[in-house]
Every structure is written in C-alpha cells, then in structure tokens.
Amino acid sequence: MAEQQKFTVKVSKNYSDTERVAIGLDIIDHIIKRSKAGKDKNNKNFPGYSEGYTDSFDFKLAGKGKNVNLTLSGEMLNSIEILETKKGEITIGIPKDDDFNNAKAEGNIKGTYGQSSPIRGKKRDFMGISRKDLSSIKSDYPINNKENRESTANRALDLVTTAAISAELVEGLDIG
Amino acid sequence: MANNDIDKEIRNAVLKKVSTAINKGFNQEYVETIRDRIVKRTQLGIGVDPETGASQRLKPLADVTKKVRKNQARVIGIKGGGKIVYTDGTEEKGLSRKSRKTRKESFKAFFGDVKLAKTTTPSKSNLTATGQLLKSLTVIKIKIRNAVAFKITVADRRGRDMFGNPSKIGNKQLVEYLKEQGRTFLGLTKSQRNQIAKEIRQILKKFL
After folding, report:
1. ipTM for this model
2. To probe the interface with A, which of B190, B199, B202 has the most A CB atoms within 10 Å?
C-alpha cells in the first residue's frame, strides 16, 4: 500500500468552511497549472525526463514532448482533492484509498519511481505550495473589513456552488 | 461537500446565472473530448473500478496470450487432461475446466500472423488487439423534451479479429466479457470526473 501524499496549509481562523473549500479548490487548480508548466512546489523547474522514459511506448502513445509536465494519462494530478478542512487549516492531497495515484505521486515526490531508493536528481515534488503563491490565492479572499468579508463570503459561496453543480453534471454523464 | 449542504435557493440562483454557459460549454465536441480521454487512458493500460471509480492498472496479459500476440505460438488443439499444445512444441499444463472451455471457444483454428494495432504491443494489457473496440466508442446526442443529453457508448459492429477471422461477437458483448474478466474500461475514473468538474467550474466561474 502506497503512502498517502498530502499537505496542510494554514489559513486565517476567521475563514468559514465554505471559504476554506473555495481557497482549497484554487490551490488545487494552481498546483495542476504549475505542474503542467514544469515547476515544483517551490517554483523550480522539474528535472528532465530520462532517455529510457522518452523512448518508452507509453510516452510516445501519449504524444508527450520533452517538457516535463507530470502528465501521461492525467490521472495523478487530477486525483488531488481537498481531504479535510477545519478551523485555520486546509489539507489537500490524494485520497488514502487511491493506491494507484498515491504510488505514482510518491514516485515523483521522492524520486523513486517504483525503485527501492530515490534516483539522484529526479525528485519532482509537486505536492505543496509556496508561501508566496498561497498568499496570492488568499489575497483573492480578503476578510480585513466588513465589506470585504461580505464579498468574500458571496464569492466563495458562488464558487463552491458551481463546484457542486459541475460535479452534478459529471455524475449525469451517461456512459455504457 | 454534499449538494444538500448548499441552500437550494442559492443553488438555483447560481444555476440561473450560468445555465447558458452550461449549455454552450457542455456540447457534443466537449463530450467527444471526454470519450477520447477514456480511449487514451485505456490505451495507457488504465481501467476503472466499477464500484469505486478508482483508477487501476488493467490486469496483465496471460503468458499464453503474449506468446500468441508475439506470433511465437498458436493454440492448435487441446489434449486430454487440459493441455494446450503450441506450434513451437511447448505445452501449457494444468488448465481448469472453466479455462479449458473458454480457451477452446476463443482459440479455434486460425492461421496467419497476428496483426496488432499500432496502439499496443504484444505484452501490453490495454484492451487492444486490432483497435476496433476503442475506436468504436461513440457519442450519441439524445433529445429529451427541450433538453439535450449525451451518451458515450460502443458501436456494436466489429470487423475481423487479430487473426483475420470474422468476429463472432459484437463490441457490446466484448465489453461485458471484459468486465467479467475484471477488465472494466467503459467509465470515468474519479480523477477524470475531477478533471471534468474542474473544467466546467472554470467555464462557469467567468459567468459569476
């Protein structure tokens, strides 16, 4: 069983649960966008792919280029969810029971890729967010005065509601 | 976060603001993209747990199947006692009665080289031999009163199998057979659902 990959960020204790969920969704969107741009959680470039990987059948089948973006099937990055929110905290990561994606993520984060020990210089730690990027996201949710608190609450509610509507639309897709 | 946690009135108010966006964004072209993702995911060897929606590696191919796909062997008969004899002289022993019956039906007399699609290799378990099954995934538009819905399904017709013989079953039956074998692909993994939900959310965000 692969280790669960997750991290926790601290936020103001004055945020409501809805606001924490909205911030959490924005953090996930940021992680995916940043990883696809080839940057790790500290905004450093990911190390390049190995020749063995670029020569592999899956690499060619997926139509990948040399830009490292942690995306083959898209399963791993899109498995990231809000795991928990509580006063002052948001925990984000891959659900514990998702062994497939936790294993993939662990391989990237530790640089192991299925080996028993890490491959030197091949860590690709995407599971997290820099302080600067987190501050930038939180700045979209100001609560420093009454007016800001109200507009932040409304904004968060709209976002969380659209997330719920989106999830509903996906469930309604008929496949089979 | 459950839907019933959100006030119905708020939900309907947001829905009213974004319904045009939903109708424009959630169209045939987009659903075809989703279909293509199911195909690509399967070709990469990833199936879906039908109960949980979890991503899972498709079960590996049996050694005998790999040998057949590599043109290294053919099953040309079954000796008494559950043995299969290959043309390279090796034998596979100890088959269960169920396996014997299944293999007898699926490995009838055939000739000629196996022709695999370019999207697979002899050892790769990705539900691909000729490529017909995944190619058959299609998007159907359904009109229900004033609304439009989409369905992703398989078209039933199949051409020749990988040995060049006319197929004896259709794609729908093949999907069921694969499902019974624990090789489910026709559905969305949780990751894919998350991705689609995120994309829709990003479209709707612009209308808030």
Report:
1. 0.93
2. B190
